[in-house]
Amino acid sequence: MLKKTLFLFITFVTFTLNAQIERVEPTFWWVGMKNTQLQLLIHGTEICTRSVIIQYPGIKILKVNRACSPNYLFVTLDINPKTTKAGTFDILLKQPDKKDLSFRYELKNRRTDSAIREGFTSADVMYLLMPDRFSNGDPTNDNVDSQPDKMNRNMENGRHGGDIKGIQDHLDYIRELGATAIWCTPMLENNYEKASYHGYAISDYYKIDPRFGSNQEYANFVEASHQKGLKVIVDMVSNHCGIWAWWMNDLPMENWIHQWPVYTQTNYKFSTLKDTHASAIDKKVFVDGWFDKTMPDLNQQNPFLWTYFIQNSIWWVEYANLDGIRMDTYPYNDRNAMATWAKAIMTEYPHFNIVGETGLYNTNDNAFWQKDAFNSLKYNSQLPTVMDFTLQTSLSTCFNEHGKPWEEMGMNRLYNTISNDYLYASLKNILVFVENHDTQRFNNLIKGDLDKFKMAMSYLMTTRGIPQIYYGTEIGMTGNKDKGDGDIRRDFPGGWQGDSINAFSAKGRTAVQNEYYNYLSKLLNWRKDKDVIHNGLLTHYIPENDIYVYFRYNDKEKIMVILNNNLKEISLKTDRFAENLKSFSNGTDVMTGIKYDLSSSIVIPKETTLILELK
Ligand code: CA
Question: Which of 8, 13, 479, 529 could form a disulfide with 487 if both were Cys (CB 3.0 to 4.6 A apart)?
Answer without folding.
Answer: 479
